[in-house]
Specification:
This protein is an alpha+beta fold and 238 residues long. It is built from six helices and 15 strands. It has two domains: 99 residues, 2-Layer Sandwich (Alpha-Beta Plaits); 137 residues, Alpha-Beta Plaits.
């Protein structure tokens, strides 16, 4: 089953999207990750419905999809209802957040304390740059989004440290044909920002490398209504 979350407002560039890892019943073995469930799910989010339509059409045009040694076949698509965005939103990470990459003078693998102002500032700069680049928001709107703060769940971080587990890891990414590494963070947190900013990071991913599957967010204790996804008539006629 392919589950998709999207909004139906303004159209964005196709780079404004993110996606989850493949979800299913798994077990780590010597040869890698083994799937034991008959169905696997991937979540894709973008504000551009035409882009999602093309992805869905492309998936169902393939008789089988080969991922490593895993053979998949597109089965069904659902759309999830979006939440009501407010100035204070709590999030969970479906995929790791990369606060920066290829910043001059900084190592992509550098650890930045999530409780520091630097961590929040990096995500603010990334978000404002991506919102400006989308062409949807005016300079006046971008300037009005100055209220922004990321507040990680400190109790979660303390518990993870006590258990000697990691919430920040180095990930390999293929970008522009080159293999690079970046540090990603997986943790619950709260964002204080304008509702428009909350909507943007929810539908486009939070932080850098979103179009490589990073920065996908979920909302705790939110059970969205799911309905069958229907491709628009304009996409089927192309």
């Amino acid at each position: 089953m392919l589950k998709i979350a999207c909004s139906d407002n303004a159209l964005f560039e196709s780079t404004n999207f993110t996606f989850s890892g493949l979800k299913g019943q798994t077990k780590v073995g010597r040869e890698g990750l083994h799937y034991f469930s008959k169905k696997a799910t991937i979540v894709l989010t973008s504000p551009n419905q035409q882009f999602i339509d093309k992805v869905v059409i492309g998936l169902f045009q393939e008789s089988h999809i080969l991922l490593g040694n895993l053979m998949l076949q597109a089965d069904a698509v659902e759309i999830e209802e979006a939440p009501i965005f407010q100035e204070s939103m709590k999030y969970l990470c479906i995929s790791p957040i990369v606060p920066f990459h290829q910043v001059e003078g900084l190592n992509n693998k550098l650890f930045v304390n999530p409780l520091s102002d630097e961590f929040s500032d990096m995500l603010y700069d990334s978000t404002m740059y991506r919102m400006e680049k989308s062409g949807v928001y005016t300079p006046e709107q971008i300037s009005s989004f100055f209220r922004f703060q990321v507040i990680p769940d400190q109790q979660y971080l303390e518990r993870i440290n006590r258990m000697d587990k990691k919430f920040a890891r180095i990930y390999s990414v293929i970008k522009d044909g080159q293999i690079m590494e970046a540090r990603g963070y997986t943790l619950p947190f709260e964002v204080l920002a304008a509702p428009e900013v909350q909507e943007f990071i929810y539908h486009n991913g939070f932080g850098e490398l979103a179009d490589h599957g990073f920065g996908m967010l979920d909302i705790p204790n939110f059970n969205p209504i799911k309905t069958p996804y229907e491709v628009s008539d304009s996409s089927t006629q192309e």
